[in-house]
Automatic annotation (TrEMBL):
Family the UniProt entry places it in: Belongs to the peptidase S8 family.
Polar residues bias: start-end ranges: 41-79, 183-192, 310-327, 1773-1797
Provenance organism: Haloarcula argentinensis
Protein name (database record): S8 family serine peptidase
Entries under InterPro entries matching the protein: Beta_helix (IPR039448), CarboxyPept-like_regulatory (IPR008969), PbH1 (IPR006626), Pectin_lyas_fold (IPR012334), Pectin_lyase_fold/virulence (IPR011050), Peptidase_S8/S53_dom (IPR000209), Peptidase_S8/S53_dom_sf (IPR036852), Peptidase_S8_His-AS (IPR022398)
Length: 1797
């Protein structure tokens, strides 16, 4: 190294203060030796400056003192070396500086390296400090540079104050980032520019590492951790608001500080109703993703802006009256007010809402309307303070805004809440309420900031209710906190259910805490448009759901009028509107009435409870809460009375002995009602007045008396009840039994002393009576316990010949009185017909089918609900089976085989959705029918009868239509290609969708589509005629036909052969054989004989009574090709049936096109299942469809393959369509022409596509797709080229499991192979070139990508990807793939759990990139990444750990990883050269930067020399410290490095050190140790730990330690440093700093001692990590605090972590344990149980704690609590469509906040 080079070496002087008489090392220096001096040796290693050669030592013995080159320092007389860090260039980002401080006066300061003065008046938020005031200690800084103009300097993180009078070690010299240096690439961290189209394909990605990002400004909402308001009632409204404000002010401060210090970031608004800050971010100057990393920030999302939707049926009418209820107590009111009993509230409670505040947030209101007014705090102020507010898109209050309407929507809903009756019709529910209006949707368009600003204003103004008739499709978690906070602050939030009909739930109507309102009509039915659904909390909301939400809940909560509601319109007009927007203000008005009547002291919970309890439904509606009515239509009178002011009646109900009576009912003649508690106490609130109070209870005489209630008082009235004789049935009498069985009934008696039972009814024969198990005679007196609660069980056994109806009379006697109970009837049937409704779920829909059947068949039919398993096991016990729902695990094929004899009739049902799928399951199992379908939104769904049949008796004739149901959505299902007789089609009145009803009379099977029951089509919706058809079908299949097939036609015969069919005869008189329409042979080609007698087709053949079977024989002619199908009409004494025996093809095998049949389709249609169709050479221009199971389509001559070249006009229609199972397509060339044609599309299972070529297709080979059953497909040896211009994917596997794609050659595609929503897919040994992406997958499980070659991709694409795991990929295996010449080798994004990326050879710009992924991610190891420019990249906000990969030889320290990546240990040889049984061939990389001085140590044995440690091209000097002489020595390249030896590295150039920990097989097995001398020693820490614990090892008893040099970066653990000197066992030292085993420390000991190494020779990775006390293995993780934490492998369990308790400190153990528990809990969330609530997660955590051994239970509990809190605050992130992180869970296509109507 030349003299000029040496002049650049940093001089470092260590002067350490003597403490406790400790001897200090001399003023030795590390410096550039003079040329030719003792330190200048002729030996060099890789341009590394070295000293004289020396033997291997722990501490060097011979050190030559060098004279440093000094310059004068302006701070005093102290000499400093020249600065090697120049002022940062203008417009370049400054990196944080650390560890340089100007010392106070009288303090000895080490020389500073970088002390450029900061210009006057310039603020630099950094520790690059200006001169300190006299006598003031300045935080240390080592790079004091002048900040460039307009440059933001990140704050420094090293500001430890130097202790007074203590000599500090030399400063650390952190260099600036060089100009043009590439920063770690980020993925999707900047907002897309407005109006820019985002590209989201597998070939083009908006990632900054591939292209520059244009300047863009975006408005974003920064979400900060929310404040959890304590349980309701513990804080006043004012206190709750204060807490929210205070929390927001405190927690938003880091975000505000960041904005203030960051150019391009502007704070636009702050909110406390949800803890959020609205910011404008210039993404060309500031990285939006940095916002997420600010303390407390949970989310960043756009301030989304949307368009409003108009309401329907607006009919301006001036002052004309609309439909009213003129006979209401208060004159004319709208039907809505009348339906809710609002006038009754006005009359009985004397309030119309006075004193209640209602805030409507909408489009503004016309307060000049004669029926509208707003509250105001100043009548002379036109802005209506306290009653009007307008907000702009930033949520800022529009100053001086006066009330106005921007559309009619807001005026209409405001009138419904509080409008008057100027028109002659009262339109408002609470006309005296204090109305407020917040304009948040100007012209129907609003932003998120406007909505929450309006809510915040309403709460600030102490509104009692917020009314929001707006909504956005999807699940928007951003709206959860403001609603919860408003409710917690005491304001009830009422929202609309949405207008997209049942099974929809938009936000905020899908938020559990809001009061969601559906729309009812004038007849108390629910409007077809009214929304509602079952919300599965985990599925729909994910981790955004608060922990106190249930696992599922139903919307809406309640219903109110919303159809053609009459209200105010701008301009003084009135009109009708429909929508849940109109229902919502009705309820808001009712809440106002309730608040007014209560005196104002009501919580939202009390209001919601009263609303719910008041709600009622029509008699035919479901009893429980449902998705149409919710709890029902609110009764405003009941709801208001329930919460009226504290006045009413209280007392106790007892018997005459004074004993309390529990559960007694107390009713008032006003309608109020309550029950007594176990102590007999009751309380009922009511208005002042005189009431008749009645108390009643079973076994007691009712007691009525008058009670007067005075205003504001509770009247006391206790009641004594006299005992009475009573009885009531608790279990009804058995409804039907077979003769010989028993009927039972159970009832309760009170004060009965005796009982006698008599038999009435029409039953014949004798019967035996049992009471409570003891036999009695009918009419015999039976003694009973005369208590007020006695249970009586009655059993009546019948004889085998009994028949008729059994009715029982039970006469009770006691207290001088008698009571008679009559039970029954029981239908006693000697020979009943047993009908089983088959349903896997046993749901209410099965019960509805049971009731429908029972109602439409005779009494002798006994109908019950059974499972498919019960049906198959007990087939002989059932005469008819009605299949409603079959789960996926049922063997339907076995079910069909078990029921194919006509002795068991089967009716299959179907309906839209999955709740009724009998026909769909039949099709999937048997391909008969081949096609099934379903749809909604049909107009009056109906059957059209094609053929008259007994199924339609009493209903319809051929040609007539039968309405199926009246459900507004028009759900129907259909099928096609059934091998039976079609009886009716199904459609919507004008169009036919498919077959609706069909029958196979040979097996007595009927298919009834659209007659199943579901959540949207219930029995109440079904027409009488539809139910009659169901009953007729059940009765028909119960009758055995006169004949059926004992055998059917063969699939194939050779020309000239004959075949026969056998018909079994039961009641057969004659039969007639004809040819079906599908027959292609003529009568001249075949002949017919019946029982050996030749017959003509169509001729009747008589059958004698004693005939059991009839044989039908068909003789074929020679030299024919065609098919024959037989229809046999069998005529019996009472019935005629048509039997279809199948289809027989006649041809000589093989079947060749065009030799035997002209067209390919003709041959396919002819051939029976299992046929091979051979195609001769040539070009065929028609697309084909294979609908025959088991067919093989192949070339007639493999050497001359045919070509199918077809023009496809439609999008994604195939040239070859496989729509049957077990089909093979091979040895064909397919050419697709058109805009986006598919090549070969497979929809059915077990297909094989092999040895074919496809060109010009959008999907070369498509396996699966929506609605398909294409499982177990094989695609191999295919050649796919030149895809369609619109879309091109070589092989697609979608919604198809167990596919195998191999040996394909694919080029010219957007993606080679794409797999989505599938499991158990194997893709191997394929070659993909000239495409945008090789292999891509999304939402798959157990996918394998093996041994594929992906290379030389599309040069025109801006970004090419080898293998992409896009999201929701579980257990992916990416191994042994060879990838080269493209942008990205393997790209991983989204939540991908388990699996590995290993043994791949990748030569790409980026080897493996992981982005937007959640833990635990796939394992990345043993990949050869040596030829990739960047081996590993990460866009995560956590650390990516990808160890044991080979990165090759890399010169300098140019980073070959990007982002937060830990890649050590790494392989030091290519994976194929590594002996996997000898896992010690790996290295640890330490990154060095030029102009830095590093302290380095090796924690265990290594066979490396100094030269071996450094990468090629590195320049610098290496020094060892001789502890005996307290001097430095420059080391030679041949010197070896001892375990725990500290070395100083003076880096002149960038570079890296690689530590291998390998010493060969002849080394000792025990770990090494090093000897410490009295005084200062330069050594490494044995482990990662606090420094006091790390050096508390062996015999070492240190007193002082200091870390004067830079810690090497990219360690496997945390690089550490600390200021000054640490005193062991001294309280003044404060918290002990952390130590690293790869860093050298000066440690002072007072006695000789031994420091052990815990790393043995040739360690495995696990042994190394265990030795240095690091638990990090391959995975991606964060401890949830933003700090690096111990990271565990997917195989580590709670017990494994607890097993290391003795060797790990509690803090580390708890952090590791918390992460393991977090992983276990979050894995469960992502699994199939996707509906888990926070309560479920907490329960799972409790189970983990309970399973821990008692000594560790407290530790485990603490760790589990940390994990649960991490989940609760949303550490598991979701992402928006443009790739930016957001805590918002949404499945909507666009973010839209719109008026719900």
């Amino acid at each position: 190294m030349g003299e000029s080079a040496y002049s650049q070496i940093i001089a470092v002087v260590f002067t350490i203060l003597l403490v406790s008489s400790a001897a200090a090392p001399g003023a030795a220096a590390l410096a550039a030796p003079e040329p030719g001096g003792p330190g200048h040796d002729t030996s060099t290693v890789q341009n590394l400056s070295i000293g004289s050669n020396s033997s291997e030592t722990e501490q060097s013995d011979n050190t030559s003192e060098q004279t440093p080159d000094r310059t004068n320092n302006s701070s005093g007389n102290e000499q400093t070396p020249p600065s090697d860090n120049t002022t940062e260039p203008e417009n370049e980002t400054t990196t944080p500086s650390d560890n340089t401080t100007e010392a106070p006066e009288n303090e000895t300061t080490p020389p500073s390296d970088n002390t450029t003065e900061v210009p006057e008046n310039e603020t630099t938020p950094s520790d690059n400090t200006t001169e300190a005031p006299e006598n003031e200690t300045t935080p240390p800084s080592d790079n004091t540079t002048e900040a460039p103009e307009n440059e933001t300097t990140p704050p420094s993180d090293n500001t430890t104050e130097v202790p007074e009078n203590e000599t500090t070690p030399p400063s650390n010299n952190t260099t600036e980032v060089p100009e043009n240096k590439t920063a770690p690439p980020s993925n999707n961290t900047t907002e897309a520019p407005e109006n820019e189209t985002a590209i989201s394909t597998v070939t083009t990605r908006n990632r900054s590492r591939n292209s520059s990002t244009n300047s863009s400004t975006a408005e974003v909402i920064v979400r900060v951790e929310e404040f959890e308001i304590p349980e309701a009632g513990t804080l006043s409204k004012e206190a709750a608001v204060d807490e929210l404000r205070t929390h927001a002010n405190e927690t938003q401060q880091p975000v505000l500080d960041y904005a203030a210090s960051t150019d391009g970031v502007t704070v636009l608004n702050r909110f406390w109703i949800t803890n959020a800050v609205l910011m404008r971010v210039n993404t060309s100057k500031a990285n939006a993703s940095a916002l997420v990393k600010q303390p407390g920030v949970t989310d960043v999302h756009r301030n989304y802006e949307v368009r409003a939707l108009s309401a329907t049926n607006t009919q301006p009418s001036g002052t004309a009256k609309q439909p009213t209820a003129a006979d209401s107590p208060s004159g004319d009111v709208t039907y809505g007010l009348d339906q809710l009993n609002v006038p009754e509230v006005w009359a009985e409670h004397g309030t119309r809402g006075a004193g209640a505040k209602v805030a409507v947030l909408d489009t503004g209101a016309d307060i000049d309307h004669p029926d509208l007014s707003l509250r105001t705090e100043n009548q002379n102020d036109a802005t209506y303070p306290g009653g009007w507010a307008e907000f702009d898109t930033n949520g800022d209050r529009v100053m001086n805004s006066t009330p106005h309407a921007t559309s009619d929507h807001g005026t209409h809903v405001t009138g419904t809440v509080g409008g008057g009756d100027t028109s002659g019709t009262a339109v408002g529910v609470a006309p005296d309420a204090d109305m407020m209006h917040g304009l948040v949707l100007p012209d129907g368009t609003g932003s998120f900031a406007q909505i929450i600003a309006g809510m915040q204003w309403a709460v600030e103004e102490d509104a009692d209710v917020i009314s929001m008739s707006l909504g956005a499709d999807g699940f928007y978690s951003t709206l959860i906190p403001p609603i919860r906070n408003a409710e917690d602050a005491g304001t009830t939030v009422v929202v609309a259910a949405g207008n997209h009909g049942p099974e929809t739930a938009p936000s905020p109507g899908n938020i559990y805490d809001a009061t969601t309102v559906g729309a009812s009509g004038p007849d108390r039915d629910i409007a077809p448009f009214s929304g509602g659904d079952v919300v599965r909390t985990q599925r729909d909301w994910g981790d955004a759901a608060p922990g106190d939400w249930p696992a599922s809940f139903v919307t809406p909560d309640i219903a109110a009028p919303g159809v053609e509601t009459y209200s105010t319109l701008p301009g003084g007009e009135y009109g009708e509107k429909s929508g849940t927007s109109m229902a919502t203000p009705h309820i808001s008005g009712v809440v106002a009435l309730m608040v007014s009547a209560s005196g104002g002291d009501l919580s939202p919970d009390e209001i919601n409870t009263a609303l719910r309890k008041s709600a009622t439904k029509p008699a035919d509606a479901p009893n429980n809460k449902d998705i149409r009515y919710g709890h029902g239509i609110v009764d405003a009178l009941d709801a208001t009375t329930a919460v009226a002011a504290e006045q009413g009646i209280t007392g106790t109900v007892t018997n005459t002995s004074g004993a309390p009576i529990a559960d007694a009912t107390v009713t008032l003649d006003s309608g109020a009602e309550t029950t007594t508690n176990p102590a007999g106490d009751y309380l009922v609130r009511t208005l002042p007045g005189r009431f008749n109070v009645t108390a009643s209870e079973f076994g007691y005489e009712p007691e009525t008396s008058q009670v007067t209630v005075d205003s504001g008082t509770m009247a006391t009235h206790s009641i004594d009840l006299s005992a009475s004789l009573d009885g009531r049935v608790t279990t009804n009498q058995t409804s039907e039994i077979k003769s010989g069985n028993a009927a039972t009934v159970t009832y309760q008696t009170a004060h009965a002393e005796t009982l006698s039972i008599t038999r009435t009814g029409t039953t014949t024969e004798n019967a035996t009576l049992y009471v409570n198990g003891q036999q009695y005679a009918f009419g015999e007196e039976i003694a009973l316990n005369n208590s007020d609660d006695t249970t009586v069980q009655v059993r009546v056994e019948t004889t085998t010949n009994a028949d008729g109806r059994l009715v029982l009379s039970h006469t009770l006697s006691g207290l001088g009185d008698t009571v008679t109970l009559t039970t029954g009837p029981t239908n006693v049937v000697p020979d009943p017909v047993y009908v089983g409704v088959v349903d896997s779920t046993g749901s209410e829909y099965a019960n509805q089918v049971q009731t429908a059947v029972d109602t439409n068949v005779p009494d002798e039919y006994f109908v019950s609900v059974i499972t498919p398993e019960e049906a198959m096991a007990e087939t002989d016990n059932y005469d008819v089976l009605v299949v409603n729902q079959v789960s996926s695990g049922v063997d339907v094929e076995a079910f069909v085989a078990a029921t194919d004899h006509p002795d068991t009739g089967v009716v299959y049902l179907d309906q839209w959705g999955a709740a009724s799928n009998g026909i769909t399951a039949l099709s999937s199992a048997t391909q008969n029918p081949v096609v099934t379908g379903q749809s909604t939104q049909n107009d009056r769904p109906a059957f059209e009868v094609v053929t008259g049949h007994p199924l339609f008796d009493g209903v319809a004739s051929a040609g007539e239509r039968v309405q199926i149901h009246n459900q507004s959505r028009g759900d129907i299902a259909w099928f096609d290609r059934y091998q039976g007789t079609t009886l009716a089609t199904v459609g919507d009145g004008s169009d036919t969708s498919g077959t609706g009803i069909a029958i196979d009379e040979s097996t007595q099977s009927v298919l009834l589509s659209s007659l199943g029951r579901t959540s949207t089509v219930r029995s109440s919706h079904m027409s009488h005629d539809a139910n009659a058809i169901l009953g007729n079908a059940v009765m028909y299949v119960n009758s055995k036909p006169p004949a059926w097939f004992a055998s059917t036609q063969p699939a194939h015969v050779s020309p000239g052969d004959s075949f026969s069919v056998e018909v079994a005869a039961d009641d057969l008189d004659r039969l007639n054989v004809t040819l079906t329409e599908s027959t292609t042979l003529t009568k001249s080609d075949i002949s017919l004989s019946v029982n050996g007698t030749e017959r003509e087709f169509g001729e009747w053949h008589s059958v004698s009574d004693d005939t059991d079977a009839v044989t039908i024989r068909i003789n074929t002619s020679r030299d024919i090709v065609g098919s024959v199908g037989l229809s046999v009409t069998a005529d019996g004494d009472n019935e005629t049936v048509e039997l279809l025996s199948g289809q027989t093809a006649a041809y000589e095998k093989p079947l060749v096109v065009p030799e035997d049949v002209d067209t390919i389709q003709g041959a396919i249609d002819l051939a029976p299942p299992g046929t091979t169709v051979e195609v001769a050479p040539g070009t065929y221009t028609k697309p084909i469809e294979v609908t025959t199971p088991g067919m093989t389509l192949t070339a007639h001559d493999a050497a001359a393959r045919p070509t199918i070249e077809a023009n496809i006009p439609g999008f994604y229609d195939p040239v070859v369509h496989v729509d049957a199972p077990n089909v093979t397509v091979e040895q064909l060339d397919v050419t697709a022409k058109g805009a986006a044609p598919d090549g070969i599309a497979v929809e059915r299972m077990n297909a094989t596509i092999q040895d074919v070529s496809v060109s010009g297709a959008a999907h070369g080979v498509l396996i699966g797709g929506a609605g398909s059953t294409a499982h177990n497909a094989v695609v191999r040896d295919v050649n796919i080229t030149n895809g369609a211009s619109l879309l091109a994917i070589g092989v697609t596997v979608g919604e198809a499991d167990s596919a195998h794609v191999s040996n394909a050659t694919i080029s010219g595609q957007d993606s080679g192979v794409d797999v989505y929503t599938s499991s158990d897919t194997v893709v191997e040994r394929n070659e993909i070139t000239d495409s945008g992406a090789g292999l891509t997958t999304f939402e798959t499980d157990n996918i394998q990508f093996r041994e594929n070659e992906i290379h030389d991709m599309d040069e025109s694409a801006s970004n090419t990807v080898g293998i992409q795991l896009e999201a929701f990929v579980t257990n992916a295996t990416v191994v042994d793939n060879d990838i080269w010449n493209l942008s990205e080798g393997v790209y991983v994004e989204g939540t991908n759990t388990g699996g590995e990326i290993a043994w791949n050879d990748i030569d790409a710009e980026y080897g493996v990139w992981v982005d937007r992924a959640d833990v635990p991610a796939v394992e990345i190891h043993h990949n050869d990444l040596s030829e990739s420019n960047t081996s590993l990249g990460s866009g995560l906000d956590t650390t990516l750990r990808a160890t044991m990969n080979y990165h090759g030889e890399r010169a300098g320290n140019r980073s070959f990883v990007s982002g937060d990546v830990v890649y050590e240990p790494f392989l030091t040889a290519p994976p194929e050269a590594v002996n996997t049984t000898d896992p010690s061939r790996f290295g640890i990389d330490l990154t060095l930067a030029a102009d830095e001085v590093y302290s380095v140590s090796v924690p265990g044995p290594t066979d490396q020399t100094v030269a071996d440690l450094f990468s090629g091209g590195f320049e610098g000097a290496v020094y060892g410290f001789d502890a005996n002489t307290q001097t430095w020595k420059m080391l030679s390249g041949d010197d070896r490095v001892a375990p725990l030896q500290g070395i100083a590295v003076v880096a002149e150039s960038d570079g890296r050190m690689t530590i291998t920990h390998h010493v060969g097989t002849d080394s000792p097995n025990a770990p090494a140790q090093t000897a410490l001398v009295e005084g200062w020693n330069f050594v490494g820490a044995p482990t990662y730990n606090r420094i006091d614990l790390a050096f508390d090892a062996g015999t070492v008893k240190p007193t002082l330690a200091t870390a004067p040099m830079t810690a090497p970066s990219s360690q496997p653990g945390q690089a550490t440093s600390f200021e000054g000197t640490y005193r062991f066992q001294s309280a003044s030292s404060g918290t002990a700093p952390d130590a690293s085993p790869y860093q050298g420390y000066f440690v002072f000991v007072e006695n000789k001692s031994t420091l052990p190494s815990y790393v043995g020779p040739n360690p495995s990775k696990t042994e190394l990590y265990k030795g240095i006390r690091l638990y990090q293995l391959n995975s991606t993780a964060s401890n949830g605090t933003g700090e690096e934490g111990p990271v565990i492998n997917g195989s580590v369990s709670v017990s494994t972590v607890l097993a290391s308790t003795g060797s790990v400190d509690n803090a580390t153990l708890q952090t590791t344990l918390s992460q393991v528990i977090y992983r276990n809990l979050t894995t469960a969330v992502a699994a199939e149980d996707s509906n888990r609530s926070m309560a479920d997660i907490e329960a799972a955590a409790a189970d983990i704690v309970a399973d821990a051994a008692p000594p560790y239970r407290n530790l485990t509990a603490s760790a589990a609590d940390t994990a649960v809190q991490r989940i609760r605050r949303g550490s598991i992130k979701t992402h928006t469509a443009d790739g930016n992180e957001t805590g918002q869970v949404s499945n909507s296509r666009s973010a839209a906040t719109v008026p719900a109507s």
